[in-house]
Amino acid sequence: MIISMIVAMDKTNAIGEGNTIPWRLSTDMMRFKNLTQGSGNNAVVMGRKTWESLPNKSRPLPDRLNIVMSRNSNWKDLGAEVALYPGRAIEIAYSEACDICWIIGGSEIYDLFINLVDEIHLTRVQTEHSGKVVFPRWDADNWTEQVIEECVKDSKNEYGTIYSIWKKN
Q1: How confident is the model at residue 20 (pLDDT cuts 50, 70, 90)?
Q2: What CATH number does residue 13 fall under?
Q3: How far apart are the first and last CA of the chain?
Q4: What pLDDT shows up at residue 33?
Q5: Domain extent at residue 111
Q6: What are all long-range contacts of 20-24, with beta carbons under 8 Å and residues at least 24 apart?
Q7: pTM above the 0.85 mark?
Q8: Residue of 3, 15, 89, 149 with fewest CB within 10 Å of its CB?
Q9: Between vectors from CA 33 to CA 50 and to CA 64, what angle results, nearest 5°?
C-alpha cells in the first residue's frame, strides 16, 4: 500500500481559513476526487475538523474508505472509521486492502503523517496569505519534485496553480 499526501497551499503555505478552503479551484477539486477515488479501493485519512467541514451531502467522501483521526475515543459518525493515532489509521487502510492511503488534512494531520508518506501531491496556489491554517514545516531537501501541470486563472479557477508530485529521496 502506498501512503500519499494531497494538499493545496498558497505561496505562504496557507491551506485554510478556519474550517474552509480559501479559494475555488475546479481543476484542483476534480484532480483531488480522481486521485483519491482511484480505482475505487483507496482510503482517505482526515482530522475530525476536516470531516466536519465537509458538506453533509459529501460525507462520507464516496467510493473511498473514510478514516477520521480523533483524540476522543468515543467519537463516531456514520460512514467514518475512527483512528486515535497514525499507525491505527494505516492499519485500518491496510486491513481493507487499500491500494493508496491518502492523507487529506488538516494541518495537524499533515504534521502527524509527514514522515510516514511516500509522496506528496501538492497544488501550489498562486496567491499569498490566504488563511491562518498552514501546512507544517517540512524539509523539502529530502524530496524530489516533478512538476506535472500548470493551470491558469479562468472562470472556474480563482487563481493559477502549479501541481507537482514530491517523492522521498
Answers
A1: confident
A2: 3.40.430.10
A3: 18
A4: 96
A5: 2-168
A6: 20/53, 22/130, 22/131, 23/125, 23/127, 23/130, 23/158, 23/159, 24/156, 24/157, 24/158
A7: yes
A8: 149
A9: 70
